[in-house]
Amino acid sequence: EWESENHALFDVLERMLRHISTARRLDAALRAYELEALAALGYRPQLDSCVACGRAAAAENNGFSSTAGGVLCPLCRGREGDQHDISPATLATLRHLQAGGLAAADRLEMAGAVRTQSEALLAVYISDRLEYSLNSINVLRALRQQIAILESPGG
Predict the structure, then answer these.
(1) 129 or 131: whose pLDDT is higher?
(2) What pTM was estimated for this model as a whole?
(3) What does 91-116 look like in DSSP terms, one character per residue?
(4) CA gyration radius for the chain?
């Protein structure tokens, strides 16, 4: 992610570094960071409507395709070979984070299944679209763990 200059991506990372020390919901903040980083790189996933037909994505059994670029409605999801299930709760969470960024992350409680599914879907999406992982995610996790150790009693 550092092979070429990308000021927008740097700004996203800088905001995340400032945010991480006070983040109350680290998993949600990491998902918000991933979505903002993808947008800065020109790979913002389409979450509001079906990438194949344009139909508004409703709270139903949608699919998610990294190669197609986002959500697939129930009618179109069988047409994509790489599509994965996305629950209505996960879709709503990712939409919320995409719209609200890091500020929205601190107000969002992610259930275990939503946390797991959103992390998995974005990891596949990032890998497929960028053809590499965002190394900064691992750095941010490690940094947050160190902050937690330092802030703990006896740390």
Answers:
(1) 129
(2) 0.83
(3) HHHHHHHHHHHHHHHTT-PPPHHHHH
(4) 16
Here the tokens at position 17 are 């570094």
Residue keyed to tokens 């991506």: 9
List the structure tokens of 137: 């995610």
What are the helix (H) ranges across the chain? 7-20, 26-40, 88-105, 112-130, 135-151
Torsion angle of alpha carbons 44, 123, 72, 117, nearest 10°? -120
Residue 137 CA, distance from chain mean position: 11
Of 24-28, 81-85, 94-98, 129-133, the range with the lowest mean pLDDT is 129-133
CB 51 within 8 A of CB 37: no
Would you mind telling me the total number of residues written for the chain in this entry?
155
Kindly list the distances between the CA atom of residue 67 and the CA atoms of 48, 81, 90, 121, 130, in Å, as whole numbers in the listed order.
17, 9, 19, 12, 11
